[in-house]
Amino acid sequence: MDSEQLREEAHKMVDFIADYYKTIENFPVLSQVQPGYLGKLLPDSAPDHPEPLQHVLNDIQEKILPGVTHWQSPNYFAYFPSNSSIAGFLGEMLSAGLNIVGFSWITSPAATELETIVLDWLAKALNLPDDFYSTGQGGGVIQGTASEAVLVVLVAARDKILRRVGRSALNKLVTYASDQTHSALQKACQIGGLNPELCRLLKTDSSTNYALSPDVLSEAISSDITSGLIPFFLCATVGTTSSTALDPLPALGRIAKINNIWFHVDAAYAGSAGICPEYRHHIDGVEEADSFNMNAHKWFLTNFDCSLLWVKDRSALIQSLSTNPEFLKNKASQENMVIDYKDWQIPLGRRFRSLKLWMVLRLYGLEGLRSYIRNHIDLAAYFEELVAQDARFKIVVPRTFSLVCFRVLPPPNSEDHGNKLNHDLLDSVNATGNVFITHTVLSGQYILRLAVGAPLTEKRHVKGAWQILQDKATALLGSL
Length: 480
Description:
Blueprint: H1 3-22, H2 53-64, H3 86-98, H4 109-125, E1 139-143, H5 146-165, E2 173-178, H6 184-191, E3 199-202, H7 214-226, E4 230-237, H8 249-258, E5 262-266, E6 291-295, H9 296-299, E7 307-311, H10 314-321, H11 331-334, H12 354-388, E8 393-395, E9 403-408, H13 419-431, E10 438-442, E11 445-451, H14 459-478
Parallel strand pairs: 2-3, 2-4, 4-5, 5-6
Antiparallel strand pairs: 1-7, 6-7, 8-9, 9-11, 10-11
């Protein structure tokens, strides 16, 4: 493809994407197709000869988009958001166009150095401790997801403790977190070869709004030490998936420090709010952490994937993850003049992801990003008010950011405490195709979650979602 062909075909693709966003509200938010639908629509082998791009775009419109759940729809309120933006899209386009594989500095110096710079920019915007800056012993790196972030720091923590106590102690290492912690931690333990029975997911309840209790943690650590086990890793969460619970970082950090435990803070969703001064206190205590993670691709207008990880001691990562085969050796690396991010992650290859984050920061500015986050929190507060005004519903946990957890109250004689009723309400709402929400379970109760975070969401979309919820609840309660 020459430059003129690129120009022509790329214009068609940009037009297609622009039209998609222009009409995105016309699609069912949650895909309505059945499993196996696409195999019936596409041929059973690849074409022998080239086809025009327009034919492919026609198939995307007719066959692919019906099978897409539209995460960027203004009526998408499920899980947590996965933000897209023009700035992020343009950065992604440029990254794809350059198509460098930046595993070491020499493979594209700008890719490494820009990543270092923008991670330092964001460390400053979040008011992170100096130890997390690249100018010291630590620094930041872009991972694909928070799952990768927790895996690399868990492996670093594992190897650090084993260098001290001997590798034969692997089956004695204990990991701690709350039972609200993302399942990525359990997967990391599995991959890291740790004893799955020693991944302690400590029970939380409504008395702490589902945050990890320092007393419960201390008791578990003391018990394990008495039993001859070795506590080595603690994962705290700022904004859990179920309910955005906030683990008490200062107290947990002190416990970790006393017991020589690696302290990781997962703020994948809520970390973005830390750039707003009025929400920064939610990550107070991060100065006690050994590592800190947030996902720019969740709530920071940066297209997936872009998960930001900072560590205080980059040598811990490098000692665990570095390989140095002959074909990768070069003067800059051998003389320790540069960062080679291949040694901070699981794979060797890596994309030029810092481009899109850099473009988001420049084209929006920190004030633009703060306004964006505040708007979503205001919209969630508006939805919370609507729910509170209807006596048939209940807010289950206090709202902190832009997630509202609520449920419809069952009749007094309900045997399952309204779990089936709320399950049926969720299915009924999502079946309309006009809105998509998800659920969780807290203290045995089936809870509905509405997370505001799509870039195009306005007050009218929140109001519309509430109207659908009310209508469907009326129908279900009337049939009981």
